[in-house]
From TrEMBL:
One of its GO terms (biological process) is xylulose catabolic process. This is Xylulose kinase. The record marks D6 as: Important for activity. Pfam families: FGGY_C, FGGY_N. Gene3D superfamilies: 3.30.420.40. GO terms for molecular function: ATP binding; D-xylulokinase activity.
């Protein structure tokens, strides 16, 4: 049996799988996020441990015999978080999360430092880990002086599971401390933010062993033999493993809280200026590139709260098939934007609202705005010689046929919708556990069965292209008005 643990922003998911990839059981445990100041986003690392204990206890209660046969654990986690430990392994302060923007000034300084983009392969975004440490150095110097180790969220869970300081290349690629081409820590990048190599964990590939479950936990959980903990990876890389996306030309688009358009790459060819993320994959000698938008279904959730109607009710106001683009343009920058603008200060707007417009028209505009933002990501990826002929579509937003057809038409790419079932990061983590105990990568990293495919509407392509051009023209105008 194999256990996949996905440390998400709002909760932890534990998935128990057999060696054939069949899901035996799933358990979830939630926790909160603290926002003590504007732009701040923090979490207590103990919440991850408590959630893990809760989820594993639920699996043990429901499937005691299966859990007793556990051979491997894989880890996935939200990226970029700064978990700071002292020399005794104690947490020094709450973890600063991926969506925390307090270090925008420090990120700009690091991004402008010679060699940083070249070595890291990426823009230094405010959400990345290195600028967070530069912020701590400037604003919490007494804490900075006590830092012995910096761990990413899933790796703090690993530390609790194994007692070892280990990370993997895919998660570490989002720190701005990793030489992403060489797949190793860079002394030059570390020095740029005042850090040292001894403060970093050991690095392993995501599909390689990355520690062994502590005997005390193994006995508490009723497990009979030694358990390998795989290197694991950052959430998007591990989700790609769950979706069977690790070969050149394979990719997925995610309509989740944020939006992601990801393509697996068999070579390293970064393009930082495009604001495309270029990271190591969770499997050896493989990378991935992705465009990221900060708000996808979050935009519909915001509209839902504003109008006092559930997201499902808003989506049901639209027909099952698209007819024409909206006359309203929505810029989905509720929390700023990453790809392609790298702009933490830009904000969302509706342009072209009419007195006769209501919830249905606003919902259509929101869905189109998110689709246009993901088209921005696709255009940026094209600059890295990425050729995607079809994509797997995942995330909560795919429950709306209207939204999926809009996205397929805006991207000009067929979107495959998977059958219902588990295929996300928790399953990907379990698959990495299988690989770490000897399973062949190609045999376990398979794509989920396709339920059906949504094709683009070529007769509407010209109209949507014109709407996209209008959308693109609005960003610089809004930026000028806001500065």
């Amino acid at each position: 049996m194999y256990l996949g643990l996905d440390v998400g922003t709002s909760g932890l998911r534990a998935l128990l799988s057999d060696e054939g990839g069949n899901v035996i059981g799933v358990a979830d445990a939630s926790y909160g996020v603290s926002h003590p100041h504007t732009g701040w986003s923090e979490q207590d690392p103990q919440d991850w441990i408590t959630a893990c204990e809760t989820a594993v206890a639920a699996l043990r209660s429901a499937h005691p015999g299966a859990l007793a046969q556990l051979r491997g654990i894989g880890l996935s986690g939200h990226m970029h978080g700064a978990t700071l430990l002292d020399s005794d392994g104690k947490v020094l302060r709450p973890c600063i999360l991926w969506n925390d923007t307090r270090s925008a000034a420090e990120a700009a300084v690091l991004d402008g430092t010679d060699g940083v983009r070249d070595l890291s392969g990426n823009i230094v975004f405010p959400g990345f880990t290195a600028p967070k440490l530069a912020w701590v150095k400037a604003h919490e110097p007494e804490i900075f002086q006590r830092i012995a180790k910096v761990l990413l969220p899933k790796d703090y869970v690993r530390y609790w599971l194994t007692g070892e300081f280990i990370s993997d290349m895919s998660d570490s690629a989002g720190t701005s401390w990793l030489d992403v081409g060489a797949r190793d820590w860079s002394s030059q990048l570390l020095e740029a933010s005042g850090m040292r190599r001894d403060q970093m964990p050991e690095l392993v590939e995501g599909s390689a062993p990355g520690g062994t479950l502590r005997d005390a936990l193994r006995q508490d959980w009723g497990i009979r033999a030694a358990v390998v903990v795989a290197g694991g990876g950052g959430d998007n890389a591990v989700a790609a493993c769950g979706a069977g996306c690790f070969r050149e030309g394979e990719g997925f688009v995610s309509l989740g809280t944020s939006g992601v358009l990801l393509a697996a790459k068999g070579h390293y060819r970064p393009d930082p200026a495009s604001a495309v993320h270029t990271f190591c994959h969770a499997v050896p000698q493989t990378w991935y590139q992705m465009g990221v938008i900060l708000a996808a279904t979050d935009c519909l959730n915001w509209l839902s709260r504003t109008l006092g109607q559930t997201p499902a009710t808003l989506a049901e106001r639209l027909p099952s098939r698209i007819e024409k683009p909206s006359s309203i343009t929505f810029l989905p920058y509720l929390s700023g934007e990453r790809t392609p603008h790298n702009d933490a200060s830009i904000r969302a707007s509706f342009v072209g609202l009419d007195i006769g417009d209501g919830p249905a028209e606003m919902t259509q505009a929101v869905m189109e705005g998110v689709a246009f933002a993901l088209r921005d990501c696709l255009e940026a990826l094209k600059g890295t010689q990425t050729d995607l002929t079809r994509l797997l579509a995942v995330g909560g937003g795919t429950q709306s046929p209207y939204w999926v057809e809009t996205l397929a038409t805006v991207l000009g790419i067929p979107l495959d919708l998977p059958d219902k079932g588990e295929f996300g990061a928790a399953l990907g983590a379990a698959r990495l556990a299988m690989a770490a105990t000897g399973a062949d990568l190609a045999s376990v990293m398979t794509a989920p069965p396709t339920s059906h495919t949504i094709d683009p509407r070529p007769e509407l392509a010209e109209a949507f292209d014109a709407s996209y051009d209008r959308y693109r023209a609005l960003y610089p105008k809004m930026k000028e008005l806001m500065t």
